[in-house]
Amino acid sequence: MKTIPKLINYRNVAFIAFLKDTRSIVSKFNAKTLKLDGSLAKVSADIAAMDEVFGTAKGSASTETIETLDARRDAALAGISMVADAYTRYFEPTPQEAGKLIQNTIGNYGRRIHSLNYLAETEVIRSLVNDFETKTDVANALGLLNLNDWVAELKAANEEFNTVFLSRNTELAEQPDLNIQNLRIPAYQNFDALVALVNAYNTITPNADYKKILDEIEELVVKYNATIPTPKPRPKKTETPETK
């Protein structure tokens, strides 16, 4: 792979989600035929172990709120898309074009935004809302179809979701019995071993499936690396003159 996954910088939730997405990619192919089943089983075992330790998240007071806010932002996005789609069949050309433009803008981010993991969906919706607000032609189209309130609802729900989601992560991180860090090290190693195995087989016995797996994992790495927060620069210390 060209891009190195910055696994150590992923938050616990993102790290587990990344492994699950990797497993999903490999599982789309015949892992046994490709001789990847043993390595994939180790990754699955890592996921199960971390899920068990991180399972207290299900009991978090904020979990229900997170699920509600996720459903709320999904509903807002679906509403915008459905209204825009209806106008693509409108009998006058101007609203018709507006509907198509909005649909295309959403389509730039894929057709299954709602099925992304929590972290990825948050970032995608932020980017989409930014397009809605800053691209003049798109903003005009939304105004023409009276969708500005829908966009405001989507933005609000997404930001509220992110606030609660990060709060829950902090809450879980502060619990001393969540010893998930000890599980991450072998998980790093088993992920690396899986990718190395795919690379090795693809070199020895080139196969389109191996290449597809590597390409899809590459896309996954780029997506997850992009969600790592950029650390704020530390303020420079002001030097004080020495006293004699």
Structure description:
By secondary structure, this protein is mainly alpha-helical. The termini are far apart. Helix 3 (63-87) runs antiparallel to helix 4, helix 3 runs antiparallel to helix 7 and helix 4 packs across helix 6 (136-144). The chain is globular. Helix content is 68%, strand content 0%. The longest helix is centred in the middle third of the chain and has 26 residues, at 148-173. The protein has helices at residues 12-27, 37-53, 63-87, 93-107, 118-134, 136-144, 148-173, 181-204, 208-225. It has 9 helices and no strands.
Q: What fraction strand?
A: under 5%
Q: What percentage of residues falls in helices of 4 or more residues?
A: 55-70%
By secondary-structure content and strand pairing, the structural class works out as mainly alpha
Shape: globular
| Largest sheet properties | none
- Which spans of ≥5 residues are poorly predicted at pLDDT below 50? 232-244
- Please give the alpha-carbon distance between the first and last residues: 59 Å
Determine the mean pLDDT: 84
Please report the number of helical segments. 9
**CA gyration radius, whole angstroms:** 22 Å
The oligomeric state of the chains shown is: single chain
Order of helices and strands: HHHHHHHHH
**Would you report the number of β strands?**
0
